Amino acid sequence: MEINQKKELKAKIEDRLGQLKADIKAYKALVKPIAPDNAIGRLTRMEAINSKSINEAALAKARETLVRLERTLAKIDDPDFGLCRECDEPIPPARLMILPETDLCVQCAASLNG
């Protein structure tokens, strides 16, 4: 991966980290416990609980992505950055721009996922 591509990728990761941190803060506010007698507008208690469950899943996914992006940012200057962890072939820069936290090439990801 070329130096200018790494700089562009670093900037993209840093932007995405900022967005994720803001999202996590918002999700934390949405997953507070729901009081037994709480009904929000026309929402029933069951709808509020369902909404809370969806937000909890989104929060968990955002936290996982945050950790992976932070790990990627810490390793971006390593000489083996951008190599697939399975086949050691270079991961195309376009794939890294879309999924900077990936450590698999398309072929290996496809074979591992099914």
Please provide a written account of the structure.
- The chain is 63% helix and 0% strand.
- The model has no long low-confidence stretch (mean pLDDT 90).
- It is elongated and about 55 Å long.
- The protein has a single domain (3-112), classed as Four Helix Bundle (Hemerythrin (Met), subunit A), CATH 1.20.120.910.
- The chain is mainly alpha-helical and 114 residues long.
- α1 (3-30) packs antiparallel against α2.
List the helices and strands and how they pair.
Elements: H1 3-30, H2 45-75, H3 93-98, H4 106-112
Average pLDDT level: 90
* Domains, number: 1
- Low-pLDDT windows of residues: none
- CATH topology annotation: Four Helix Bundle (Hemerythrin (Met), subunit A)
Shape: elongated
**How many alpha or pi helices?**
4
SSE ordering = HHHH
Query: Structural class of the helices, strands and pairings?
Result: mainly alpha
For the sheet with most strands, the description reads:
none
- Class in CATH? Mainly Alpha
Q: How large, in whole angstroms, is the Cα Rg? A: 19 Å
What is the strand content?
under 5%
The proportion of residues forming helix, as a percent range, comes to: 55-70%
CATH superfamily: DksA, coiled-coil domain
CATH architecture: Up-down Bundle
Give the beta-strand count. Answer: 0
Calculate the terminal CA-CA distance, rounded to whole Å.
28 Å
